[in-house]
Amino acid sequence: MNRPIPPKTARKGKPSMKLKTATEDLRMHSPSSWVIESIEKNFSMDRLVSGQTYAMESQIRFIKFSTGLIKATVQCTEEKPYKLEIDVPVLTSEQWTQVAQRMAGEARVAARLSAGKIPSNLGEMIVDCGQSSFSDELVVRCGCNDKKPCKHSAAVLFLTAQRLLATPLLYFDLRGTDKDDLLIKLRQARTLEATGEARAHATIRDDDLPKLPPLEECLEDFWRSPHSTKEADRAPMPPHLPHTLLRRLGVSPMDGKFPMAGLLETIYDDVSRVARDLRRDS
Predict the structure, then answer these.
(1) Which of 74, 227, 233, 259 is deepest in the core (most CB within 10 A)?
(2) Which long-range contacts (CB under 8 A, 24 or more apart) does 178-187 make?
């Protein structure tokens, strides 16, 4: 008598490669939500469910992230796991500069990036610049040789979304940049937006300063006015010394693309100019 052949069951993978986060939770956080959106755009419902099941049952044996590429192996019903690769669109430096220019108008973006967080509206800004927040059309190469994105790649993407929830800055590595480079582009974009050109003084300007005696030589007369109270209103103004506080502070010990004191001098000059223009036009 022939015994019925039991259905094949997937072999178990490593417990550490297990999807433990609900899809709704992934959908609430960026950039995980952008991966979930990509999954829903690229997979039929049956493959999506199968991939999610694979991810929940620890079928992913290996996963590695690099710029523009996700490599993984997924254990299926076969003896050997399938090897697969998923391409992630990489933005060029010029495209990230365009995104930074779009970000320049958002006040909280730099603070969130500096704190190691991804702004929730960054995906919309990337889309506004003509790019996808993750991948609108997936390019997958899998050992199963399926012509369409397969359930194995869906499983890997669910785990990718979970990984991005834990380490959101990994998103920048996948898309071809990093947090620090994007912050530099953002600062440059804000400088351009504020002044119309990228500029900053190299250092505090060496204006001709009057020669003054050392403080210890004039302590007795320091608080004494050179003019009487009757002449005070008609007395000439003392010579203007620009940016006296910055001169007193000297060179900043902080390293950066621009000297701190020179950059602050540029900002002070621009603010003063705008204030004078507003006063004149009022």
Answers:
(1) 74
(2) 179/113, 179/114, 179/116, 181/96, 182/96, 182/99, 182/100, 182/113, 183/110, 183/113, 183/114, 184/257, 185/96, 185/97, 185/99, 185/100, 186/100, 186/103, 186/104, 186/109, 186/110, 186/113, 187/110, 187/257
Strands 60-66, 139-142: parallel, antiparallel or unpaired by DSSP? unpaired
Q: Which two tokens stand for residue 256?
A: 């950066």
Global pTM value: 0.65
The tens digit of pLDDT for each residue in 79-94 reads 889 999 999 999 999 9
Beta strands in 75-227 (DSSP E): 82-87, 139-142
214-241 confidence digits (pLDDT tens): 777 878 877 877 777 777 667 776 666 6
17 token code pair: 């490669």
Strand residue runs (E) in 33-151: 60-66, 69-74, 82-87, 139-142
Give the DSSP letter of residue 107. T
Is the peptide bond between 168 and the residue preceding it cis, with omega within 30 degrees of 0? no
Residue 236 carries which DSSP code? P
What residue ranges do the domains of the chain occupy? 23-192, 200-208+245-282
The two three-digit tokens of residue 91, written as one number: 């933005």
Cα–Cα distance, 278 to 282 (Å, whole number): 6
Angle CA 100–110–190, to nearest 5: 50
Q: List pLDDT tens digits, range 94-136.
A: 999 999 999 887 777 888 888 888 988 999 999 999 999 999 9
- pLDDT at position 205 over 60: no
Tell me the two tokens of residue 263: 């950059």
pLDDT at 6: 46
